[in-house]
Amino acid sequence: MTAAAKASPPRPAQLLGQTVVVIGGSGGIGFETARLAGVEGAGVIITGRDSARLDRAANELDALSTAAFDVNDPAALERFFGGLPQPIDHVMVTAGRPHYADLLSTDLAQARQALDEQLLLVLGVARNAAEKVRPGGTLLFMTGTGARRIRAGSGFISTVTAGLPALAASLALELAPIRVNLIAAGFVDTPLSASLLGGELETRRDQLRATLPIGRVVGPEDVAALAVHLMANTALTGATYDVDGGEQIVE
Known about the structure:
By secondary structure, the chain is α/β, with parallel strands linked by helices. The chain has a single domain, classed as Rossmann fold, CATH 3.40.50. It is built from ten helices and seven strands. Helix 4 runs parallel beside helix 5 and helix 5 packs parallel to helix 6. The termini are far apart. The relative contact order is 0.14.
């Protein structure tokens, strides 16, 4: 038998003909997820706040369409979903950033805003997407792993991190047969991480390369690979999936 005869047939595209919406798709994890979804045969729709950045990303991704708006504006979010073609297949939300603050000194107005941007955003997307996503399609949301360990000064983000898995699981029951899953990432080497760490970024990278079992830093493409798998595997719903290179077992 020749080597050509032994070769495996090409793997079919996992998302062929499907439509994937990425909220926060102009950079980082969202952009990589949209890119990989396109490689796997999907048409992609991306959103972001910065229209110029969004246009550059759309050109690179050959996106079906874009929408520039603030995802934390309930009216804008409703307009966006109302204008989408029907049905769509998957929605991933990567927009937003963590709020690191202790509980007692956090201004209540800031606390309410942070809850809106994390817990209530998930609920808002779910309500608006419910009539658009086909049965068996997916809603995917992001959280982190680092705040699972309670530390002084991180009470607020730890509270939100604890609540999101329960919210996702509850939505999976209420929205079934639409699937709802949560991706919990550790440190991911993105522009957002760079903006949060500033001059400490390279030190953090070196530390992770030296300590993580995988021997390297997790990148946005690693999270994107998990996201596309969760879209394609129709047996998965109501769960939280970690992607942190083993960070939790060594820290």
